[in-house]
Every structure is written in structure tokens, then in C-alpha cells.
User: Fold this.
Amino acid sequence: MRQEIRLEIGPLAAWTPVVTKTVEPYAASYKPDLFEKTHTEIRMVSAARTFWEKATILHQEANRSKTKMPARYSRHYYDLYMMAQTPVKSEAINDLALLLRVVQFKQKFYACAWAQYEHATPKEIKLLPREEHMKQLKDDYAKMEAMLFGEIPEFETLLQGLKDLEDEIHALE
Assistant:
């Protein structure tokens, strides 16, 4: 066990806005004697940015043609659903300029014509997958359950929560 945090960030990741947060590994709460320090401060991308990053991933997938979705993509649906249950949702939906910056960043560095990022606006953003991807996404979600923490929402609950979130975002402007 090492006292470090591994961050997996691609070379084209945006780093704004940045916040400083205190983090503690789960293992430290069970075996604090194994750690010289049980917590540390890190600089990280704000959760509001991550919220809009996840929302635009879901928007991209909602516009995917009948091609197969990538493996383990159900995690993005789960992540956004879970974030929407926290104060992060309010922070994000009160910063629509951040959504615009995320969209512009993706258009520049992750150009994808079928993603239709130009429609990832409060009035038009799509968070639900196409009907033809539902079974694949549900199967993927079932395979990922071992990687999820705490009480795991049913797939249908996840979709309903995202539909409610989509409706809430559409009503913003």
C-alpha cells in the first residue's frame, strides 16, 4: 500500500475550474495505523465541471448511431445520477457558462460530428440513451456493479433519475 493518489487524466483534459480538497483513502478509515497521514490536500478539477463533462458524454451517447457503445460506459450514467443526488447538481446548474466551456472544449479537442455538441445546451441536452442501446447499457451496468459503492440503484431508477435531471436542465432557460 502506498501513500499516494493515482490520477488518470488524459493529455487533453481541462483543468479549470480548480479547487483544493482534502481526501482520505478508504483504507485509512479501516487501518489508520498503516498510514503516516490519513488524509492530504489535493488540487483537482471542480465537481461542477465533472458534472457537465459527464452530461456531455451522455449527450454524445444519446446521439450515437446504432453502433455499439464502448464497454464500461454505464459508469458515466451512474456517476451523473449519483452527482445529481448531491449539492454538486445545484452548483453545476447554477453555472451554465461552465457547460458552454465544456462543450467548446469538447468541440475543439474531441470533435465528433455525430455527437452534436452544438445541441448540448440547457434547452436541448440529452441524457438518456437511444432505445436500441438500452439492453447493452443495462448489461454493462450489471457487469460494473462490483465496482460501485454502497447501495446500487436499479438501472430503471438510474434512467428515471436522469430523465428527471434532463427535464430540470431543460427548464432552466
